[in-house]
Design brief:
The protein has about 325 residues and is of the alpha/beta class. The chain has two domains: about 1-115 and about 305-310, 2-Layer Sandwich (Nucleotidyltransferase, domain 5), CATH 3.30.420.40; about 125-300, Nucleotidyltransferase, domain 5 (2-Layer Sandwich). Helix content is about 35%, strand content about 25%. The chain is built from ten helices and 13 strands. It has a five-stranded mixed beta sheet with strand order 3-2-1-4-8.
Length: about 325
């Protein structure tokens, strides 16, 4: 039996064919180009799925279900994407629309929940009963897994840690609130923070990293310049890591999971990211004197976590 998992991100749509051993044996990829009408995005989801099936050497007849991880809150009873601020979706009947395309059962959940489920079953959280995954990407995604199940809450919208406020009256978030964690800890936020620092410090080595073109700034720019000894970059990275840590401390204080893993492109910085995060957490967590503490680690499945987790939504 083969399943298709789809990760609908802010930048790319990635589909993968998943075998019974939870291996991805074929992939397809399209640009998300969000925001745009749902039907256009769903057409590209279908195309990415077809590409994945072809790469796997299969046909759609071999596929028993399609799972889709999408930004926003998904009502699994109705199949509606009720709200996805980064896609500009409101009350979109996604399950119905996609099943008309695929002529197969379609399952949906929040993309960060899918990434958390993938990591919980096949990655960093394998074998633990309580697990939280954080994804630092276009936004800040998060998912809570207890005993192998996604915690969705009464309305399936639980786990939106990126939209807890860490700075009262702070930066405007496109969810409608001000000061959301996402506005300070996402890769998008790091890029903005890096550019702001560069504009104020024209002699920073960060300008060399982007060949004097500020439009080339990425989430790696400050980290790369920091490793070359640039003082401005060191301050950008230190401040960004503190913002990330504030949210993680809040999550640990609220949930005390066995394992919390950090994924997304920024997590590729590995221990250079995690060591100072652990230092902040150890100093500020409420459970400072407890014998057993939450393990903080990197995600291990990388970009495949969301695809694998989406493919497992029918389990």
């Amino acid at each position: 039996m083969y399943r298709i998992g789809v990760d609908l991100g802010g930048t790319n749509i990635v589909a993968g064919v998943i075998d019974e051993s939870l291996n991805i044996i074929g992939k397809g990829k399209m640009k998300a180009r969000t925001p745009r009408p749902a039907d256009e995005i769903f057409a590209d989801i279908e195309q990415a799925a077809i590409m994945a099936v072809q790469e796997a050497g299969l046909s759609m007849d071999d596929i028993i279900s399609i799972g889709v991880g999408t930004p926003g809150s998904v009502n699994k009873n109705t199949g509606y994407i009720e709200f996805a601020n980064n896609l500009d979706f409101k009350k979109v009947p996604a399950k119905e629309m996609l099943e008309k395309r695929f002529k197969k059962p379609v399952y949906l959940d929040n993309d960060a929940n899918c990434a958390a489920l993938g990591e919980a079953i096949a990655g960093a959280g394998k074998g633990v009963s309580s697990f939280v995954a954080i994804t630092l990407g276009t936004g800040v995604g998060s998912g809570i897994i207890i005993d192998g199940k996604i915690v969705g809450g009464v309305n399936f919208a639980a786990g939106e840690m990126g939209h807890m406020v860490i700075s009262e009256g702070g930066e405007q978030c496109n969810c409608g609130r001000r000061g959301c964690w996402e506005r300070y800890a996402s890769a998008t936020a790091l890029v903005a923070q890096t550019k702001d620092a560069m504009r104020l410090n024209q002699d920073s080595k960060m300008w060399e990293e982007v060949e004097d073109n500020i439009d080339r700034v990425s989430g790696r720019t400050a980290f790369d310049a920091m490793r070359k000894g640039d003082e401005t970059a060191k301050k950008v990275v230190a401040q960004y890591i503190y913002y990330v840590s504030v949210g993680i401390i809040n999550i640990i204080n609220a949930l005390q999971p066995e394992v919390l893993c950090v994924g997304g492109g920024i997590s590729n910085e590995g221990e250079e990211l995690l060591v100072p995060i652990r230092t902040h957490v150890e100093r500020e967590r409420y459970s400072i004197y407890a014998t057993k503490q939450t393990k903080i680690c990197s995600a291990v499945l990388g970009n495949d976590a969301g695809v694998i987790g989406a493919g497992l939504l029918d389990f």
